[in-house]
Amino acid sequence: MLKRFAPKSLFGRTILIVVLPIFLMQSIVTWVFFNRHWEEVTATLAKSTASDVGFLTEQWLERDSQDEQVSLLTKAREDLEITMTYVPTASIPEEDQRSFFNALNRVLDRELDWSLDRPYWYNTTGFDNEVEIRVQLDDGYLRYRVDRSRVVARNGHFFVMWLIGATGLLGYIALIFLRNQVRSITRLAAAADAFGRGEDVSDFKPSGAREVRQAGHAFIAMRARIKRFLEQRTEMLAGVSHDLKTPLTRLKLHLALDPDMPGADKMKSDLGEMERLLEDYLTFARGEAEDLREKVDLEVLADELGQNAARLGRTLKADVEPGLSLIAQKSQLSRAISNLVTNGFKFADEVRFTAARKGETIEIAVDDDGPGIPEEEREAAVKAFSRLDIARNSNISGSGLGLAIVRDIARAHGGALRLESSDLGGLRAVIALPAPTKS
């Protein structure tokens, strides 16, 4: 349940780990301050004020002459700093004007109940700097106005503001350090993602905490091992290809010297097929080529594919979004699309090439009206050396690497290959590649 609301990023979770304890600590400190220290100080002040009000009320009731009462009012103002006023033939209000601080109301009620045996009323919200207390008499009421600092502890909000400010400052400093620590992890993730797309990440340097640097160095070592493995595989297949081409060349030479040999035409065809198979194996072994990435205009690429098809006596229909381009290894991308187009012409009469941008992805699709590939066999179709039944006849042969090469080239560019059903009735092969960032 809590996972649904928890932050998904490392930075967000780290902030939660830091901020939540600070917030809880601040809440506890504030609660302790207001319920212990602030209430105790307020109780002491309110008790003193309530005691003065009770004393002045008793003195007023004991004095009958007007001169004595005026003298009491003067002494209250000068000695006790309480403005005391007598309001004859009037009654106090029925409801108090209470503060929203329950602790203040509770303290005043307790202390005034103890100091007075008469009805009273107080107002803690009607004045900014004063608190008014009224005590009911038989012929009117006494009104007392006391400076607010004598009743309520006034330094509480300063403490809270200081606490919030200090917490905010420390939290901000912590966030800066956290962002720097998380940045090294995001750089490592970005480098790993770029390497997975076949990009050069030789400028990556581990940084951050010791554990993050260890992960960075492990990534560099892994990258070196993978590149070394790819180089060894390419060299091995290149050597095998070279060794096999030598006897093939001798056989072709013998056929050229004796063209009237029985079955010579069939042998030439078989030798040509063997050379094509070797080239397919070598292309698959190379995997990610070392070509530099450049801007590839897909409209120009579509024209080149159309011209190649025309030389073979076929027509390639093309529909490319105007101005569409991407950053890629041109020779590799061209090989992948040509592979799809060639496969389409092997099994179909109509082949269509389309390219369009969809959000953050550029989709390059090749459709045909051939027999297609059943959905349950599409996953196997892109595996290396996989040859479906449709290709196992005497007229159509292959190495079983065509779609595997296309898939590897798409992955090397950070994309993927999808096989779908085409609206033409046959197969739809889609190469989905990351679109370049719009400037």
Automatic annotation (TrEMBL):
Q: Which reaction does it catalyse?
A: ATP + protein L-histidine = ADP + protein N-phospho-L-histidine
Membrane topology according to the record = Multi-pass membrane protein
Q: Which GO terms describe its cellular component?
A: plasma membrane
One Pfam family this sequence matches? HisKA
Task: Name the InterPro entries on file.
Answer: 2C_sensor_his_kinase, HAMP_dom, HATPase_C_sf, HATPase_dom, His_kinase_dom, HisK_dim/P_dom, HisK_dim/P_sf, Sig_transdc_His_kin-like_C
Which parts pass through the membrane? Answer: 12-34, 159-178
Single Gene Ontology MF annotation:
ATP binding
EC number(s) in its UniProt entry?
Answer: 2.7.13.3
Q: Where is the HAMP domain?
A: 179-231
Q: Where in the cell is it found?
A: Cell inner membrane
Stored PROSITE patterns: HAMP (PS50885), HIS_KIN (PS50109)
Q: Which UniProt keywords apply?
A: ATP-binding, Cell inner membrane, Cell membrane, Kinase, Membrane, Nucleotide-binding, Phosphoprotein, Transferase, Transmembrane, Transmembrane helix, Two-component regulatory system
- Top-rank taxon of the source lineage equals Bacteria
Domain (Histidine kinase): residue spans on this chain: 239-437
Q: What name is this protein filed under?
A: histidine kinase
